[in-house]
Amino acid sequence: MTLTKADLADLLFEKVGLNKREAKDMVEGFFEEVRVALEQGEGVKLSGFGNFQLRSKPQRPGRNPKTGEEIPITARRVVTFHASQKLKAAVEATGHGDKR
Amino acid sequence: MTRSELIVRLAARFPQLTAKDADTAVKMIIDAMIGSLTRGSRIEIRGFGSFSLSHRPPRVGRNPKSGEKVEVPEKFVPHFKAGKELRQRVDQRD
User: Which pick of A55, B1, B40, B80 has the fewest CB atoms within 10 Å?
Assistant: First the structure.
């Protein structure tokens, strides 16, 4: 059972008393504000959950796995996530569900 | 951006709601995400990314101070994979 934006919106509708439209917009707004911050080069720290950071990676050599042809992997900026101690501790003992 | 700054930005985005609504919404969203991973369920947010658990098998570690062997039991750790839209927006070169 995967958690999706629709599940989160239902929760805000049922438990916070937002109407359906507001609940959906709030969930979208939550993730959009995080994207905007990251896009502008600003890290995001959500206490209790974890931190999203940006890393700039230099160009490195790569290969097309099908043809074996060498092609450079261009320099890029990527997002990394570090779970908080709270989240790590909560998840550590989990031994069921989809384990990916 | 911290959690409290996120709440301020969301409150500004929704002038018809109170700051307390934004605060409660952020808390509920984060708690629901922690709850889902704790139950072993993944989280999939289109355009943002997915959170899942990776398995770490049991291993024999060492106490770096004493050199003593310690059994480290298997465990699960959270893993995030950025979605296509987030990946592209973060990597815009201008």
Answer: A55
